[in-house]
Amino acid sequence: MQDIHNGGCLCGAVRFKAHGELRELIYCHCSQCRKQTGLYYAATNVRNDGLEVEGQENITWYRASDSAGRGFCRTCGSALFWKADGQDHTSIMAGAFEKPTDLKSGYHIFCADQGDFYEINDDLPKFAASRV
């Protein structure tokens, strides 16, 4: 896996570099992720000290719960980040990375809350709620 992973939002107002190893992809089917994106989240994460962001002033953080924030570009609306309070890592949406990503699929979470308009048809592990 490469050491630096580049990405950004649709309009380019926010650019980032993720340094170091990225976690396997988690596919989240909770209602919050579906409402923000229209489907479900596919996200990896990187340690906070390995995330370098240009255009930080263009990120709006929305508190969708008491324990985490969702970061998106205030110009184009691209969903970019998810961060749980007090954690040493930040989740980054897989679609925000430039190719090649070298990302690998991991598992599905909050499958009990998935939308009724699609099916999960792969062999990845599936969890009714969070994996932890």
Task: Note the topology.
Layout: E1 4-8, E2 15-19, E3 25-28, H1 31-37, E4 41-47, E5 51-54, E6 59-62, E7 68-73, E8 79-84, E9 89-93, E10 105-109
Parallel strand pairs: 3-10
Antiparallel strand pairs: 1-2, 2-5, 3-4, 4-9, 6-7, 7-8, 8-9
List keywords for this structure.
132 residues; mainly beta; seven-stranded mixed beta sheet; three-stranded antiparallel beta sheet; globular
Report on the architecture of this protein.
The chain is mainly beta and 132 residues long. It has one helix spanning 31-37; strands spanning 4-8, 15-19, 25-28, 41-47, 51-54, 59-62, 68-73, 79-84, 89-93, 105-109. Strand 1 and strand 2 (15-19) form a beta hairpin. The model has no long low-confidence stretch (mean pLDDT 95).
Explain briefly what this protein structure is.
The protein is mostly beta strands and 132 residues long. It contains 1 helix and 10 strands; from the N terminus they run βββαβββββββ.
Number of strands: 10
Q: Please write the string of helix (H) and strand (E) elements.
A: EEEHEEEEEEE
Structural class: mainly beta
Neighbour order of strands in the largest sheet: 6-7-8-9-4-3-10
Major beta-sheet overview:
7 strands, mixed
**Poorly predicted ranges:** none
Indicate the radius of gyration in whole angstroms. 14 Å
Number of helices: 1
Bulk shape: globular
Distance between the termini: 26 Å
Provide the helix percentage.
Answer: under 10%
Kindly state the mean pLDDT as a whole number? 95
* Percent range for β-strand residues: 35-45%
